[in-house]
Amino acid sequence: MSEGGTPAALSARIGDYQQRTEQVLDRYLTLTDPGTPRLLQAMRYSVLGGGKRLRPILVYCAGEALGAPLAVLDAPAAAVELIHAYSLIHDDLPAMDDDDLRRGQPTCHKAFDEGTAILAGDALQALAFAVLAEDTSPGISPQSRLLSLRQLAHGIGTAGMAGGQAIDLAAVGRQLSLTELEQMHRRKTGALITTSVLLGAYAADIPPGAQLAALQRYGDELGLAFQIQDDILDVTGDVAAIGKQPGADAARAKPTYPSLLGLTQSRALAVAARDRAIANLSGLGLHTDLLEGLAHFVVDRSH
Predict the structure, then answer these.
(1) Which residue, 181, 222, 167, is CA-closest to 198?
(2) pLDDT tens for each residue of 116-161
(3) Which pLDDT tens digit goes with each residue over 10-37?
(4) What are the phi and psi torsion angles at 225 (to 5°)?
(5) Could you confirm whether domain 3-300 is CATH 2.130.10.120?
(6) Which residues contact 283 (CB under 8 A, 6 or more apart)?
(7) CA-CA distance, 133 to 103, in Å (whole number)?
(8) Strand residue runs (E) in the chain
(9) pTM score, whole prediction
(10) Residue 173, SS3 per DSSP
(11) 238: which DSSP letter?
């Protein structure tokens, strides 16, 4: 692994991307016509000041590997994180996962109220599409911009995040097969992670072909590895590390990899998905050390 792919270098780059993401998000959430101050306050509360920022980091890493300048990647990076924040607000609602803590602080509906939380999520989703559609960065073709918007819609719709969450809700109290569980994870969490990688590629204006297909496969496997590790951390983590109450999945009788296979086999499957993700980066002719490092980070993390 080159110097750029060492753990210290990876940690430094992740920190740089997290700081840049925070600044970009703050800019997009400084609205001249916020609708109501309370709604904007709830949006900012739920987005700023916390989180791993994995999805925007993937946008930056994939785009930079393909030669896109950072400034061109800011809008898609912000868009995927706004979507992610909206999904967390809604996931935490009483009608969904009914969580009280997120990133170590009260969830949006606890800090404000349930109606405001629903509207904050709705507004963040709308803002994400506006950010992509209104971006005026040079060098991105209209076709790539359209592909980005389509990909974001696909990643969060019935074939992606929303569909996966619907499967998750319907599965409470019953056991899924391993195949069903994998399909749920690939939609619920994996689809937006794949979308993050592809938005970085579209911002680099690369045409459809082998590189794009390999990056999509990388994102698919990385998303699966990420969610398996999330399942594991719900069993092994603590509030201080993961920022929410552990054991929530078991308390709600939700199907997870540890509940189906146990921790040891779940860990093995996360590592296997990580290795498949990394294998898809070989032969691309790109500097993919950071993308490879992120794959290791996803399964080694403790939060």
Answers:
(1) 222
(2) 999 999 999 999 999 999 998 887 888 999 999 999 999 999 999 9
(3) 889 999 999 999 999 999 999 767 668 9
(4) -60, -40
(5) no
(6) 214
(7) 29
(8) 101-102, 105-106
(9) 0.92
(10) coil
(11) -
